[in-house]
TrEMBL record:
It comes from Paraburkholderia sacchari. The lineage of its organism: Bacteria, Pseudomonadati, Pseudomonadota, Betaproteobacteria, Burkholderiales. NCBIfam families: urea_trans_UrtD. CDD domains: ABC_Mj1267_LivG_branched (cd03219). The gene is urtD. Keywords: ATP-binding, Nucleotide-binding, Transport. This is Urea ABC transporter ATP-binding protein UrtD.
Length: 283
């Protein structure tokens, strides 16, 4: 099944010109079933490495359209959780579903990416020799078999989508520069742009602010906030100012420790939670 079957039935150029919303798919009827509200749910997930439980009955769900921050000490299992969601690691036990119907434990990594989950690793992986705009163009064409057949139709809107994405990631004036010449923060934004070109329904970001300057970190928070309504996001991060900028006063924050959920609530809530203070924030 093509991930963008809904788009295929409509005039794609309309989507391309309709603003930020064209870059993602929060709710796509007939494709990812979010009728119960969740874009992703993990239930009782266990991952053991030589008897050590990196994930120990992890249960968690993300609402469609939500930007969820995940915090927790090193070794809590945050990256392992993303490995499970993206098919890199098979759980020993438990359920992992995209929407109500897509069982991610039965799919391999390319299939999961194709189903609409994009993952941003810590280190930016851009094509250094290629201009910024070409990085976006290449991202649009990779692992989309159906793209070729639609090419004639899409060409006229492809340029518009690239330009729109350049605007969102704030790299319009760098479009013709080689990606290798960008700053670390710009490269991270470019990589997010490349993920957006694939129109993910859910974007996973593992410590995206690591190694960034304070300014770059806040620019990234602004970018992710701007993507609300475009795709659902799960952001693992240590930088508490960054988390505060994403979660605001009402956003939900999940605290993981020892392979499970330790606490869940607004940032203020979890900061006041006794076990969170003990195991993570310190007194
Ligand atoms: P976090 O991202 O929260 O820092 P990780 O998911 O990277 O935590 O790691 C959770 C635990 O699982 C750690 O104790 C880590 O050493 C262990 N772990 C992760 N991947 C492997 C692996 N491939 N083999 C053995 N142990 C692993
Ligand atoms: Mg990690």
């Amino acid at each position: 099944m093509a991930p963008n079957s809904m788009l295929m039935n409509e005039d794609i150029s309309d989507h391309a010109l309709s603003g930020v919303a064209s870059l993602g798919r929060v709710v796509t009827p007939g494709e990812i079933d979010v009728s119960h509200g969740a874009i992703l749910y993990l239930d009782d997930v266990v991952v053991s490495f030589d008897g050590f439980r990196a994930l120990d009955a992890l249960t968690l769900s993300i609402d469609a359209g939500e930007l969820r921050c995940i915090i927790g000490p090193n070794g809590a299992g945050k990256t392992t959780m993303m490995d499970v969601i993206t098919g890199k690691t098979r759980p020993d036990h438990g359920k992992v579903f995209l929407g109500q119907t897509i069982d991610l434990t039965r799919m391999n990594e390319p299939e999961i990416a194709h189903a609409g989950i994009g993952r941003k690793f810590q280190k930016p992986t851009v094509f250094e020799q290629h201009p910024v705009w070409e990085n976006l163009e290449l991202a649009m064409k990779t692992d989309k078999g159906w793209w070729t057949s639609l090419r004639a139709r899409l060409d006229r809107s492809a340029q518009a989508r690239i330009e729109e994405t350049l605007g969102i990631i704030g790299l319009e004036s760098e479009a013709r520069r080689a990606a290798g010449e960008l700053s670390h923060g710009q490269k991270q934004r470019l990589e997010i742009g490349m993920l957006l070109m694939q129109q993910p329904a859910l974007l996973l970001l593992d410590e995206p602010a690591a190694g960034m300057t304070d300014d770059e970190t806040m620019q990234l928070a602004e970018l992710l906030n701007q993507l609300r309504g475009t795709c659902s996001m799960m952001v693992v991060e240590h930088d508490m100012e960054f988390v505060a900028a994403l979660a605001g006063e009402t956003g939900k924050v999940t605290v993981m420790a020892e392979g499970r959920v330790l606490a869940h609530g607004t940032l203020d809530n979890v900061k006041q939670n006794e076990s969170v203070i003990e195991s993570y924030l310190g007194r």
